[in-house]
Amino acid sequence: METFVEIKPGRKPLQRIYLGTMLWFVGRAIQAAARVDNQVKKEFQSMPPNYTFSLGAFPNGPYMVVGKNDRGKATYLGGDLSKQPVDLEMTLKSMEHLFVLFTFRESTPTANSRDRMIVNGDVPQACAAVRILDIVQVYLLPKFIARLAIKRYPKWSLKRHTLDRTLILIRTLIGI
Amino acid sequence: MYIPEYYEFCCRVNMVAGHDALEKIPELLVSMGASNPMVLTDKGVRAAGLVDILITAMADKLCIKTIEDEVPPDSDLKVVNRLAGVYREKGCDAIIAIGGGSVLDTAKGINILVSENSDDLLQFTGAGALKRKLKPLIAIPTTAGTGSEVTIAAVIADHEKNRKMIFGSYFLLPDVAIIDSRMTLTLPVHITAATAMDAMAHAVESFVMLSKNPLSDAHATEAIGLICRHLPRVIQDPQDKEGRLALATAATLAGIAFSNATVGMVHALGHSVGSVCHVPHGTCMAILLPYGLEYNCHKVEERIADLLLPLAGADLYTRTPQKDRAAAAIACIRQLNRDLNQSTGGAHAVCFKDIKDREGNLSVPENSLPQIAQTALGDGTLFYNPEDMDYDDCLRVLQAAWEGIPLNTRTSKESQR
Ligand SMILES: [Fe+2]
């Protein structure tokens, strides 16, 4: 008799791997950007101590959690929501919606305006988190893709585009 | 017409409008199985004699169990808890809320407690915490502006713990909104102008912001047309009953539009001016609205151009070439503000530096603009603005609105590279 590997419908393992990787990158890049980029640093400073926020898909993820540690430094806390209390949850209503977002077919503002996202937490911090995500996307993505993801491609100094970007990419990959 | 790939629209409030709409209340309550309402209002509304109009209209057809007018201008948890006790004590079975946003929010809070038989409002905060229908609630708006009679949210402040509780549920919507011209007939002209411009801002913003859809657009354009046709006339003749009813109808239409399509930067900046400098919301809306359009114009020019039709009528619309329509629409709103300024003897301000308090001091001092800009960055309505806004952008817009000079639209475009 043959044995079958059962693939459950709706699970979409490839999509899950892609999204998990993207979220891992974004999470680590936020940690890196908070050490290199002044604007991201400032946004984190405005958040209360030990503040955490997450981005992910309802109901089973994947997720990424970022937060301020005891010394006030922004840290990527992994992909598990249950490991720590999360102060601000930004959740796409399904993995499909997150996939559309992370394949840049729909910008974050568009996804939000089409009611695909649930934001649970304080509004000022949610605004700050969205600004952080926007900046990180500019660092991670080539301009022609970043333009699809955010409302306005920012005017940055050459140093920010080259030196800071390189530093952030290196830090993201090695995780410091 | 812009048809998004996906949109949602919902409005489930029963509207009863007219010059004698109040008289319908007893019948409406009976149809909802209630007959012992609590009337909730604030001192200002009561002093204006509006509750008396309601009582006269009810004659002997309805037994009002109690009239409570202790609602503060800012809804308050303690008041909600106390009034929920009164509701139970007096054996009420429905609430009639007559007043503005704070009265209605308080009514929604009381309704949660008495319907869920709870003493702890905190349990029901956030979206989706309410699972079933609440007790009958009738809303009678007394300013033609906020549109809160058709919005699903309620904000109740816990002043002791210094925080705000936000509730969101379709079950919080009033069952009926009564739009009666008698409720706004005595509203002073400058308040009439400001509240109508709040409604205008709801309609215009819902039409240009990111979540617009064909159904919200239909409500928005009708609201804009009604305001443009009737507001100047009502300011000339405050006793114009038809005009008053038209403005109240426009406010409700605009409320339906923005609760299904959201507002944007005009409200983000306006909320912030309000919270930092305590300027009335409608005044902020009137001043900021043209700037909100100018700022976003390079992204949504076509939408703004379409606004010229309801703003100016078919004649001017057809005479204006397409490329000039957006600018003409913005000019129309500025002109409306200037006309209102004239006809209210200067009480309707057209820029922030013109607003003075009773002692003649500036209500919005120029050095408060940085704090306002910083506050605006934490306002969620910015999410729905077509163009991004950072601190410098907010400050630039506020500065222009403070001085009353048009925004340099080139700068907005250039930052978009
Ligand atoms: Fe408003």
How is the topology of this model organized?
The complex is a heterodimer of chains A (176) and B (417).
Chain A: H1 13-36, H2 38-45, E1 52-57, E2 63-68, E3 74-76, E4 88-92, H3 95-102, H4 108-113, E5 117-120, H5 123-140, H6 143-149, H7 158-174
Chain B: E1 14-18, H1 25-31, E2 37-40, H2 43-47, H3 50-58, E3 66-68, H4 77-89, E4 94-99, H5 101-116, E5 126-127, E6 137-141, E7 153-158, E8 163-168, E9 176-180, H6 189-208, H7 214-236, H8 241-261, H9 265-277, H10 281-306, H11 308-312, H12 314-319, H13 322-343, H14 369-376, H15 391-403, H16 409-414
Parallel strand pairs in B: 1-9, 2-3, 2-4, 4-6, 5-8, 6-9
Antiparallel strand pairs in B: 7-8
Helix pairs in contact in B: 4-5, 6-7, 6-8, 6-10, 7-8, 7-13, 9-10, 9-14, 10-13, 10-15, 14-15
The complex binds fe (ii) ion (FE2).
The site of fe (ii) ion has 6 residues of chain B, from α6 and α10.
Please tell me about this protein's structure.
The complex is a heterodimer of chains A (176) and B (417). Chain A is of the alpha+beta class and 176 residues long. Chain A is 50% helix and 14% strand. Chain A has a 5-stranded mixed beta sheet with strand order 3-2-1-4-5. In chain A, helix 1 crosses helix 7 and helix 2 packs antiparallel against helix 5. The relative contact order of chain A is 0.17. With 417 residues, chain B is an alpha/beta fold. Chain B has 2 domains: 14-183, Rossmann fold, CATH 3.40.50.1970; 189-416, Up-down Bundle (Dehydroquinate synthase-like, alpha domain). Helix content of chain B is 51%, strand content 10%. Chain B has 16 helices and 9 strands. Chain A binds chain B through residues 109-110, 112-115, 118-120, 123-128, 130, 134, 150-155, and chain B through 4-8, 126-127, 209-211, 262, 377-380, 382-384, 386-388, 415-417. Fe (ii) ion is lined by residues 198, 201-202, 267, 281, 285 of chain B.
